[in-house]
Amino acid sequence: MESKGRPNGPEVGRIIGNGTPVKVVCEAHGPTVDGQSHTVWDRIEDGTWVYGYYLTTPSTPA
After folding, report:
1. Residue 49 and residue 33: Cα distance in Å, rounded?
2. Are 43 and 27 in contact (CB under 8 A)?
3. What are the residues facing 29 on neighbouring strands?
4. Of 19, 23, 53, 56, which one has the greatest count of Cβ atoms within 10 A?
5. Opening angle at CA 61, ends 6 and 57, nearest 5
6. Mean pLDDT per 10-residue interval, the chain, length 62 residues
7. Secondary structure percentages of the chain, helix, strand, coil, to 5
8. What is the C-alpha to C-alpha distance for residues 11 and 19, in angstroms, rounded to an integer?
9. CA distances from 1 to 15, 17, 54 (A)
10. Which residues on neighbouring strands pair with residue 28, listed in sequence order?
11. Which residues contact 47 (CB under 8 A, 6 or more apart)?
């Protein structure tokens, strides 16, 4: 998975291996990728963004 400087931006922040834990610090809606309908992007602790479709994140109880 590639992290980006902004949601679906052209620049690659870094390559993150499958199964690598990352710390999500916030989420935002952005463009879809790879034909998916998912619009959530996650900003991780290094300040780059990853497409939320590719992360497994816990839900927060209401």
Report:
1. 13
2. yes
3. 40
4. 53
5. 35
6. 87 90 93 91 94 82 58
7. 5, 35, 60
8. 22
9. 6, 6, 8
10. 41
11. 13
Distance in angstroms (rounded) separating the CA atoms of residues 59 and 57: 6
List strands edge to edge, sheet with 40-44.
12-15, 2-4, 49-51, 40-44, 24-29
Q: Are 10 and 54 in contact (CB under 8 A)?
A: no
How far is the C-alpha of 56 from the C-alpha of 62, rounded, in Å?
Answer: 19
Distance CA 22, CA 20 (A): 6
Report the alpha-carbon distance of residue 14 to residue 17 in Å, rounded: 10
> What is the token pair recorded at 21?
């834990």
Nearest Cα to 12, choosing from 57, 46, 55?
46
